[in-house]
Specification:
The complex is a heterodimer of chains A (291) and B (226). Chain A is of the alpha+beta class and 291 residues long. Chain A is built from 10 helices and 4 strands; from the N terminus they run ααβαβααβαβαααα. Chain B is 32% helix and 25% strand. Classes of the chains: A alpha+beta (291), B alpha/beta (226).
Chain lengths: 291, 226
């Protein structure tokens, strides 16, 4: 009977103040959608980093006048370096061959370059691609080294943009969350006010605190959960639209977002929505009802 | 049953204490009037017995429990042994007499079946048999106060606190409410009543404790309003 009482109070409470309830749910949904989007992006950027950095190389180009002694020293040093996973030596012929392949569509350019004009180089794979800076500092002044080029610098720019988008989404999520939680607090206050007589009697006759608070807190939790379901719907629509629409061009760059990625975000959104609503509701009650 | 030991209470920002070194002992089954002018500290005593305010100094013991050191989360359970009646009845306007009394039972975890057995009984006791399904606005002031008394008594509390229960009632109705409280007192329930009503105090001839400016100026068995 008590459970039934609590649940019916929750529904009555949400319905009594239905415009506020809708406002609360919508802001909550937008906030959670942004949060979920940021989460997805975070996940994807992680995947992409694994994928891209795995194939990324650091190239150490040697000076044209490098002596065999210097080259062998560097080779030995690189091979014993704990930061380096794999070293490949590319001599001038090899470099020229690669150059020809890369620019086979531009024969004029290929013809203009002679085989011995291309520098020898060491191609490195790093244990951790983000430790490029250490490699650079360590070898830039080594005898015979001309230039050190890191492909991952380019990727960093791409990821910089993605991280920027992610931060932006998180910022919106936080702002919307603030609005949503203020609405929760307000809704709880209105609900508590409209039930002030009941609450006074309950306190008087010794109803337990959880019993007095539960309907209000659950009201907030239900709003949070409905909000997260709505946010999930937004995401599903978003994926549906993106798959067919203009964003499909990005598919090659960004690893595709699957349905399971989206559904895996749901427990996080629902959990965050419900938990934060519950805490807000409960804190509001502490201040407002003093129960 | 109730002990106040050298209790002093000063509200924040108040220039003088509401209760100043007050000591009172009330035995089980007693019927006690607290009288005195407005602002003398009578209501503060009621609030203390309900664990609504705590004294700055001294000790308050109710039903063998030290209220002064009681943690707030124990308050709900503690309240179940105390019934309460107020001047303004405090009934729920959208519930019938029966539902008002049953509500008090259900929110402390009693089943509907228990309510169905106990509530008609107690409404009969307070003289509202046949009016169970009236709403408060369909009842007279005296009848509303009877519902309030029924609600306070339905859980068979050890103590009944009444804060000016006749303040909104005419003299004849007041007498009837007093008869009801007297009957409840005869079941062994300790009754503590705060009042301004000299007529009632004089008729009842029970223990009278008079308070003035936070001090007890008179404590008299079988007293009058004076």
């Amino acid at each position: 009977m008590r459970m039934k009482y609590v649940l019916s109070e929750v529904l009555v409470g949400l319905w009594r103040n239905v415009t506020m309830t809708i406002a609360m749910i919508i802001t909550m949904a937008v906030s959670l959608f942004m949060l979920g989007g940021a989460g997805l992006l975070y996940q994807k950027v992680g995947d992409m980093k694994d994928l891209y950095y795995e194939n990324v190389q650091v190239s150490i180009f040697l000076k044209p006048d490098v002596s065999p002694q210097q080259r062998d020293d560097l080779d030995a040093k690189l091979k014993s370096d704990p930061l380096v996973k794999e070293v490949t030596y590319v001599n001038k012929d090899e470099a020229y061959k690669r150059f020809q392949e890369m620019y086979q569509d531009a024969p004029d350019l290929v013809n203009a370059v002679k085989a011995d004009q291309l520098p020898e180089s060491f191609r490195l794979k790093l244990v951790n691609p983000e430790q490029y800076r250490d490699i650079y500092d360590q070898y830039k002044d080594t005898e015979g080294v001309d230039e050190i080029v890191d492909q991952s610098r380019l990727l960093d720019k791409v990821f910089g943009v993605l991280t920027g988008i992610q931060t932006f989404a998180l910022a919106i999520a936080v702002f919307m969350a603030a609005a949503a939680l203020l609405l929760v607090a307000n809704t709880i206050q209105v609900a508590a006010y409209s039930k002030r007589r009941e609450v006074a009697v309950m306190k008087l006759v010794g109803a337990s605190n959880w019993f007095i608070q539960a309907p209000f807190v659950l009201e907030a939790v239900v709003a949070g959960l409905v909000g997260s379901i709505l946010a999930l719907t937004f995401m599903a629509v978003g994926k549906y639209v993106a798959a067919g629409g203009s964003l499909s061009a990005l598919e090659g760059l960004i690893t595709p977002i699957s349905w399971s990625d989206i559904f895996l975000m749901f427990p996080i959104m629902a959990g965050v929505g419900a938990l934060f609503s519950a805490i807000t509701g409960w804190v509001t009650l502490r201040f407002y009802l003093r129960v | 049953m109730i002990q106040l030991e050298q209790v002093t209470k000063t509200y924040p920002k108040a220039s003088r204490p509401s209760l100043d070194n007050v000591s009172v002992s009330i035995e089980k089954g007693e019927f006690v009037f607290f009288i005195g002018p407005s602002g003398s500290g009578k209501s503060t005593i009621i609030k203390m017995l309900l664990h609504e305010v705590s004294p700055n100094k001294g000790r308050v013991v109710v039903n063998g429990k030290d209220v002064t050191t009681m943690r707030s989360w124990k308050r709900p359970h503690f309240r179940r042994s105390i019934g309460c009646v107020f001047q303004d009845f405090r009934l729920l306007p959208n519930r019938t007499a029966y539902e008002n009394v049953a509500f008090a039972l259900e929110v402390i975890g009693k089943t509907k079946a228990v309510a169905r057995r106990v509530v008609p009984e107690v409404l009969e006791l307070v003289g509202l048999g046949g009016k169970e399904h009236r709403y408060p606005h369909e009842l007279s002031g005296g009848e509303q106060q009877r519902v309030a008394v029924a609600r306070a008594f339905v859980n068979r509390p050890l103590i009944l606190l009444a804060d000016e229960p006749t303040g909104n009632l005419d003299p004849d109705t007041s007498i009837e409410i007093m008869r009801l409280l007297d009957r409840i007192n005869r079941t062994g329930t300790t009754v503590v009543m705060v009042t301004h009503d000299s007529n009632i105090v004089n008729q009842m001839r029970r223990r009278v404790i008079e308070i003035e400016s936070g001090r007890i100026v008179r404590d008299q068995a079988r007293g009058v309003y004076g």
